[in-house]
Write a structure and sequence with these properties.
Elements (H helix, E strand, L loop, with lengths): L19 E6 L5 E6 L6 H20 L4 H6 L1
Antiparallel strand pairs: 1-2
């Protein structure tokens, strides 16, 4: 997005978890920001977050003009 800068810091956790953030472009010239947390640790939490990330990115791509609709999902 012209005229906009974004930066972040990643600090590694001691164990695998479901904490997650993501930035992605939308077809409408906007971009999406996803910040999420699965209340658990380990592989199951990480897999659940991976599923959620995929679902939200897919919905954002399918319905870029109606972000409020896929957020209700």
């Amino acid at each position: 997005m012209p005229g906009f800068q974004l930066s972040f810091v990643l600090r590694s956790a001691r164990e695998t978890s479901g904490d997650f953030y993501d930035f992605f472009p939308l077809n409408s010239g906007h971009f999406g920001i996803l910040v999420a947390d699965v209340v658990d640790k380990g592989a199951a939490a990480a897999l659940l977050m991976a599923y959620g990330r995929t679902l939200l990115r897919t919905l954002a791509e399918e319905f870029p003009e109606y972000p409020e609709e896929f957020l209700k999902t």
